[in-house]
Amino acid sequence: MKKKKKRKSKAGLIALICLFAIAFLGGFFYYYLLGFSKNSSLGNGLASAERREVIDGEPVNILLMGVDIGNPKNQNEPKRTDTIILINYNQANEEINMVSIPRDTLVTINGKNQKINAAHAIGGVECLIKNVQKLLNIDINYYGKVDYNGFRNIIDSIGGVNIEITQNMKYDDASQDLHINFKKGETVHLDGKKAEEFFRWRKNNDGTGLAEGDLGRIDNQHLFINKVIDKFKSPAIIPRLPGVMTTLPKYAETNMKPEEMIKYAYTFLKVDKENMKITTLKGDSKYIRGISYFIYSEKQNKELLSNLQGVSTGSSGNSKIDKQNIKVQILNGTNINGLAAKLSSELKENGYSNITTGNGEKTTKSKIIVRGINKKLIPLIKRDFHINNVEVESYKEGDIHITVLIGEDFNK
Q1: Residues with Cβ < 8 Å from 300, sequence gap 6 or more?
Q2: Three-state DSSP class for residue 313
Q3: Residues contacting 205, CB < 8 A, separation 6+
Q4: For the whole model, what pTM was predicted?
Q5: Mean per-residue pLDDT for 244-265?
Q6: What is d(CA 243, CA 197) in angstroms, rounded to the nearest whole number?
Q7: Strand stretches in 70-130, DSSP E
Q8: CA angle 127, 130, 132 (to 5 degrees)
Q9: How far is CA 159 from CA 52, 147, 232, 233, 249, in A?
């Protein structure tokens, strides 16, 4: 009897020790992940007025930004983004779209033409997020940011990747201590330093290089990203994970909470490679007042936008909305006359016919209130109304299905 009690006591003690060990390791892991959020330049991420909460079934958008080296002589000088990539996860069909946004993309900031890579230098993370949201008419739920110093260390932590060089790369810039030398046809192991060189290369010392400039460089980056994805999906990454987890918080920042990082990291690793697409925004290059810009084309990106907004282009009933029978109320919450009538006219051209207009309470932020409509259709409604801020209310018989309050931020 005493032996049985001893065994039970010993087993209980072992179980307790295991429990404490698991709790300690879990806490240790959580602590490192918490380092990301502590680095965030926006405190707990986007301010409550800006952060877009994830709705079940709605796409999840994560904006990745790689910050350039800036001015080597003045590290406090605001930095531009050298790389901008949107990761779009469609919860309904478990697909991931990775979309590169050319850094020369034309946007308007403070009433002036700017290249989108200047947004971060002008107004930080928040400014870049707002401009991407406006450009693509989507919500950004999360962001991640890293500079080239962090990029090098992160690639080193995963053990680098092997890549075949498809063209000669020979470029030197002494001011940035940048020296690139790869030969066509060779397979190179890219550690952090060499990966940075591959990622940044556009032209050679003799002027030859990528005919499409930054767009060609993005194609090279996509090759590299595919190699990194393969590395993370390989069992070889397992022994390197502790090193990755201790490196990332030192050099990266995000507005994700630790539990969100764990959730999406696990989710993304489960996605089949065939369900991952890497693309670049389509558009045309154009000179405006002597400056070359990339002009984003909504028409050329129609299919991509449908994917990003979670709107199926197939025959599924879930992707259709009975626009003729949807009751829409548009209220103008600004001092600018005619906004409600203008939006009403555009919506009628788009198939909505049951629309009333009027004046509402003055507001700075536009909003859509949806009642009695499938949540899966919210991305379509956002696209049709050109407003991202959506609230869902319960529906009672006779209620208006969609109420739009136009605020001072409405720009259509």
Answers
A1: 282, 283
A2: coil
A3: 170, 171, 172
A4: 0.70
A5: 82
A6: 23
A7: 81-90, 95-100, 106-109, 112-115
A8: 110
A9: 35, 19, 11, 14, 18
